[in-house]
Model the fold of this input.
Amino acid sequence: MKRMDSVFRRINPASVKLMSICCIGIAVNLVAYGLTRFFKLPFYFDTLGTVFIAALGGYVPGVAVGFLTNLLGAMFNMTEVYFGLVSILVALITAFLAQRGYYELFPKVVLSVPFTIFVTGFFGALIEEALGMNGTLNSLEHFGKHFLWNFYHELPDKGLIVTIVFLVLKRIPPDIKKIFENLGRMQAPISDEMIQGIKKRRKFVTSLRTKMIFNLMATTFLVAIFISLISYTTYRESTIEERKRIADGIVSMVVAEIDPNRVDEFISLGYSAEGYAEVENRLYRIRNSNSDIKYLYVYKIMEDGCHVVFDLDTYDVEASEPGSIEDFEDDFKKYLPALLAGKPIPPIVNDDKYGHLLTIYKPVYNHNGKCVCYAAIDFSMDVISSYGKMFIAKVISLFSGALIFLFILGLAFIENSIILPVNTMAYCAQNFAYDSDEAREQNVNQMRSLDIKTHDEIENLYSAFLKTTQDSMNYFTNFRKAKVQMEVMNELAHTDALTGIKNKTAYNEMTSKIDKEISEGNADFCIIMLDVNYLKRVNDTYGHERGNEYLINACKLATSIFGEENVYRIGGDEFVAVLKDEQIVGAEEKISGLRNKINALQANKSLEPWKKVSAAVGASFYNAGVDKTAGEVFKRADKEMYENKLAMKAVRKD
Done:
């Protein structure tokens, strides 16, 4: 019980409000539709709740109401689920127009009706045509008539719905409308000034929102393609298998009609043989029992070809005479050894001059178990093509609506749970004033007023951000503590956060000292440059945590050779080692040892990819009288490293 209470406490009130509003909208749709059917009114009214909620609450609740209404309607009429896309489009158009003031003035509302019907009528007609609900899409003229019919019949329905929604919205107080505008938000409402500041900032930076939306769109698109391909492939394979079972059962009936002891007699005498015509008539009845049987025949397979035992006439192909010899089809030549040996062969699906066919050959055995001939049927597979097109249309209709619905939900989640909280925190941080105690206190109160409650890492970040800001305020009141913090920050400024070694700042300060030593004539040093390979591959394949581990392993390798105090991380995947004075002795051996260790790690197949450190290495020694700065020595080392990287790429096999 305690666990259940904890779960209920974690439920976000904004989510509860959103779900409640959606339930109300769905109920309005279903009740309005039911009343029009009960009173036999010439309207549908099945989108009344969708239009109302979309105009009042925006995209997310409107789309949810439209799609879920069709989903529930599918319990009574399965075709309703395919029109979820149309309901979603109604919600999107309504929300789009409502946000631009079209539901504030009646003339604008009237203008929105034809536009809405044009879009929904077009897609409605397209879905109906694709699903074969109103004939087949044979021409643009046929589709145009269907579209105009939809437009004409939906004009009074949508016009009345929009008018009702407009009148109801006029009666709703502004405070209630404000609540609907903030549906789904995981924080307190923000000021117009903050909204404008966030929009202004987006113009100058690459927005996280844009990146996440792009990734969401790409993911949704790929999921749609994969689901459609998998669904169609599964459907096609299952349909083929089902037709193989049907065809196999029919050809078994043909085998039962053939007397194996009279096959040679039927070949030589044909219609003159006693009982031949009766057997042929029974074969005709078998063929006529299923309209998908295109050809039925019985062959004795011999070296010189297929000797006809029975061959039935069709509408477009005249049958071969008994005893005649047919050439082997190209598709059967690879099975010829098995056929001559009297063995079964697998079903064959081909598409040639005779059409798209499934061919089943079944051997006929005599009492000694010897194959004397083969009974065969060619089963039409045209149904797969025709049903396949309709299946694809159903999949597209179903998943387009579902995926748009999921995309809108995902977009809303990203906007309300990630982008808006992050942007408001960034705005507060960017506009933080340190001029006076009063200004600082006011800024802290502004951050606190955001009241971000996403119940996840974003809320943790907000809490940490708020706490850090408050702590920073405390630092201003205590100079001594601030001085200690400054020393700590100075140390952190010279240390790489990931590897714990000195960073580029420390390297720059060190090279400045070397430049001074060069000018004084007492410098002696060498620079070794390491550029880590395959970091992007490790990040993309195994995740950034493994990528970080890969960099740490590279750092450990470098420090184990040159000493931690001599190694610097100067870039994302770049390390530099600087050896001075007496450390120069044995430097060549250390460089060679580093390369040997790298080669050994690459050759060790037992290691995980993030442990097999690979890096290009370049080294250069200070040349007194020639080098004026440490930067010149670094450039030579960097050039040698680059040449080493090119050489490593040249021998790569992956």
